[in-house]
Write a structure and sequence with these properties.
Blueprint lengths: L3 H9 L11 H10 L1 H16 L17 H8 L5 H8 L9 H19 L2
Length: 118
């Protein structure tokens, strides 16, 4: 099992995944709302968009922009069940456990925290 730091480093090797970054509008939104609210949003998005065994519009359910967590989901390969399978070997066709959801949220928040340092 890889650590958050190892996962983030591996993702930097992908030209596509490493192309995602928070812009100033995203950073301001995060500062305004606070990390507790961002974490709550991340939990909601993971539960609603990734957790079901067969998510609605899988592969297209996560917008590329509009919320910092959406960018984090793409940057970390947590945007759809196909990417979760490719990057983390999470099987398709079965509902995500609470532990799996928690790990995804922690990865999303780690990416956001790293982006906020830049």
């Amino acid at each position: 099992m890889q650590t958050l730091a190892e996962a983030l480093k591996k993702l930097q090797g992908s030209k596509f995944r490493s192309s995602f970054h928070l812009n100033e509008k995203d950073r301001n939104y995060i500062r305004e709302k606070g990390m507790d609210v961002i974490e709550s949003h991340a939990r909601d998005f993971v539960r609603d968009k990734l957790s079901p065994a067969y998510p609605l519009n899988d592969g297209k359910q996560t917008p590329m922009k509009g919320h910092p967590v959406f960018k984090a989901m793409h940057a970390t390969g947590c945007c759809c069940r196909g990417c979760l399978n490719k990057w983390y070997r999470v099987p398709k066709g079965c509902e995500l456990s609470e532990l799996q959801q928690e790990k995804i949220v922690r990865l999303l928040l780690a990416w956001i925290r790293e982006e906020m340092k830049q």
